[in-house]
């Protein structure tokens, strides 16, 4: 058992890679933490406050209680409400770097509460739980028939990597990549951090070729539809992509785009700063609408299988199954760091009726049958 002080919870002393260590059940005690019996009262008090303006000490005190006693606490409706509220608070502060400490406090509290709420959730049916050889992956495309071989965008120095037999066999730094997609016979390497994007061809060869697409802001996604190439940038502008040039905006979505995917004849895009909503572009007509994302608060990614959509939420360790109109159907798995559990899931894909979900902080990829 490790004992820490309340000051050790201050997020200014942590990076995005370290503050996940402080979770219920991780054998950590916070000196001076409130008693477990105070948990419901403290949660109720926080629910009655503006979480964006509540005192740091009030939030850290409840976090100390969860770190110390959370593994013993039964789930409650108040915990669920507070987990939802802190997730929405996180979204409200996306992009506001002046308030990064508050955003981190709310993120961590939300994750702690999910770990408490999901402690007894079943992981039955999980097919595998393996670790990708990289630091904090954003996206992963598997080679056909493989569970670990493929391409990954990560937080390593050389952050676009080809994996074979559980090892990195080729890598290169390509901006700050956060998304990978197939593009013709090559791969698109996109980002919501660094300007432009990249097209990689001959990706399976010993010498992959890289074409840089320059742009005035990050290019999140490039894709082909109806014989035409398009690119979507982080400002929500969709334009045609010809060679290495992006044309004028054909439309502009009302948000900052962090993730976008093509499913059939639809483009789905998500602004992680807008909780509970996303955008859909009908690629046949180029008409855009705002959609509700059901039980998903911050939609990190989606995929499809047959008539169903599957999605993940940054601050909920579950796989969500939905109809094509985003009506919730069911969920699987739960939040945590144990085998088959999810914490900050960043990617979901479906291949051959198997769902693969990547955990950002741990580099683990969990696979389960589509349900």
Secondary structure topology:
Elements: E1 2-4, E2 28-30, H1 39-47, H2 56-69, H3 77-92, H4 100-117, E3 128-131, E4 139-142, E5 150-153, E6 160-164, E7 167-172, E8 179-183, E9 186-190, E10 197-201, E11 209-213, E12 219-225, E13 228-233, E14 237-242, E15 245-252, E16 259-263, E17 266-270, E18 277-282, E19 287-292, E20 299-305, E21 308-313, E22 316-323, E23 328-332, E24 345-351, E25 354-359, E26 364-369
Parallel strand pairs: 1-2
Antiparallel strand pairs: 3-26, 4-5, 5-6, 6-7, 8-9, 9-10, 10-11, 12-13, 13-14, 14-15, 16-17, 17-18, 18-19, 20-21, 21-22, 22-23, 24-25, 25-26
Helix pairs in contact: 1-2, 1-3, 2-4, 3-4
Order of H and E elements: EEHHHHEEEEEEEEEEEEEEEEEEEEEEEE
Beta percentage is: 35-45%
Strand order of the largest sheet: 3-26-25-24
From the spread of the alpha carbons, the general shape counts as globular
Distance between the termini: 39 Å
**What does the radius of gyration come to?**
21 Å
Report on the structure:
The protein has 371 residues and is α+β, with helices and mostly antiparallel strands. 15% of the residues lie in helices and 39% in strands. The protein is built from 4 helices and 26 strands. The strands form 7 sheets. The chain has a 4-stranded antiparallel beta sheet with strand order 3-26-25-24, with no helix packed on it. A 4-stranded antiparallel beta sheet has the order 4-5-6-7, with no helix packed on it. α1 (39-47) runs antiparallel to α2 (56-69), α2 (56-69) runs parallel beside α4 and α3 runs antiparallel to α4 (100-117). The chain is globular and about 65 Å long.
